[in-house]
Q: What sequence folds into this?
């Protein structure tokens, strides 16, 4: 029997779907987690009647990330905007979406994402935006603590290296203890369920494991990775990395507003 094809359509997306928009700005990719707007069924029906079925109401795309966006300079224009949706079945993407600010008859204002295609394209969970870590961390599997070097992390998966033979078993669940450096020492960010889906030997020695992370962690990890992305784009020393391309007292607000205007085009 042929394997059933997993699909996700725009109309199936709801408040329980993990969402983000991936913007290409000045040649850099910046992924911003977003939330399905808190509107009534009647308001959703009004949006679909006015703008068609291929729409998703979103809470303010920029508001949550405004403080971090202040630290990033966007000199050019938005060249591409994609929608990323994650559920228990996988990760789905819609290319070349647009976002508009609209006001409903009830007086509610929302960001309205409009897509060209009904169905999203399913792609490998490891293709989620990744951040490089190269840090020693612990993995727990079957009651045993295993030390690994985590090379990279996305909200969908991670890659790690073991120096000799692999102690982490393929296909069996494990728990990653995600830590990061702080002024007070190591800080535990959280514990995340995952499993190894493939392994390969490295030319210099050691075993590299490619893993998926349970979709239950997607929302938290999207926000964590978005913050790390913006730190990396801006540089650790935020003030020295900002380029004052816009003059005036409100130059930071103008930078943020320029992103909103680009999204509204």
A:
């Amino acid at each position: 029997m042929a394997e059933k094809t997993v699909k996700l359509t725009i109309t199936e997306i709801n408040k329980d779907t993990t969402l983000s928009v991936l913007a290409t700005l000045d040649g850099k990719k910046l992924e911003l987690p977003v939330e399905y707007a808190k509107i009534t069924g009647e308001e959703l029906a009004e949006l679909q009647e006015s703008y068609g079925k291929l729409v998703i109401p979103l809470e303010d795309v920029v508001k949550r990330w405004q403080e971090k966006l202040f630290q990033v300079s966007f000199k050019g224009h938005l060249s591409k905007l994609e929608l990323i949706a994650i559920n228990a079945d996988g990760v789905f993407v819609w290319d070349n979406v647009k976002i508009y600010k609209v006001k409903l008859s009830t007086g509610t204002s929302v960001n309205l994402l409009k897509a060209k295609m009904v169905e999203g394209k399913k792609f490998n969970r490891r293709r989620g935006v990744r951040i490089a870590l190269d840090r020693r961390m612990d993995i727990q599997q079957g009651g045993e603590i295993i030390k690994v070097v985590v090379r990279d992390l996305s909200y969908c998966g991670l890659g790690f290296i073991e120096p000799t033979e692999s102690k982490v078993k393929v296909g069996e669940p494990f728990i990653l203890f995600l830590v990061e450096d702080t002024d007070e020492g190591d800080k535990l960010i959280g514990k995340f369920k995952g499993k190894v889906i493939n392994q390969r030997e490295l030319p210099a020695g050691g075993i590299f494991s490619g893993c998926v992370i349970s979709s239950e962690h997607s929302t938290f990890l999207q926000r964590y990775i978005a913050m790390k992305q913006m730190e990396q784009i801006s540089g650790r020393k935020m003030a020295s990395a900002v380029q004052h391309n816009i003059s005036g007292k409100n130059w930071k607000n103008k930078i943020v507003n320029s992103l909103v205007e680009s999204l509204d085009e």
Remarks:
- The longest strand covers residues 185-201.
- The chain has two domains: 8-122, 130-238.
- The domain at 8-122 is CATH 2.30.110 (Pnp Oxidase; Chain A).
- The first helix runs from residue 41 to 51.
